[in-house]
Design a protein that fits this description.
This protein is of the alpha+beta class. Helices cover about 25% and strands about 25% of the residues.
Length: about 90
């Protein structure tokens, strides 16, 4: 199963979301759909109506920048990284 790793900033917004979880997914899009089943509303937070990953969110599969169509293997790790801002 593929692993999804979430940052604390998303966990703060979605307390039901696990910091790490394993999902059956062939693509990043499928992994985000599985994540939304665990933490409803997560998909809308990460994707726009395109659907494409929102501009301020970056996703990486096995440390390589990814899109929704990027394939995921059974041993892949998906990192979801929101932009950090502030002063």
């Amino acid at each position: 199963m593929a692993t999804i790793v979430l940052p604390r900033s998303l966990i703060a917004l979605f307390p039901a979301a696990p910091r790490r979880c394993e999902v059956e997914a062939a693509t990043v899009a499928e992994a985000i759909d599985r994540l939304d089943e665990l933490a409803p509303g997560m998909r809308n937070r990460l994707l726009d109506s395109g659907p494409v990953v929102r501009e301020h969110i970056k996703v990486f599969v096995d440390q390589v920048p990814a899109t929704l169509a990027t394939p995921m293997g059974r041993d892949s790790t998906l990192h979801i990284i929101p932009a950090v801002s502030g002063g």
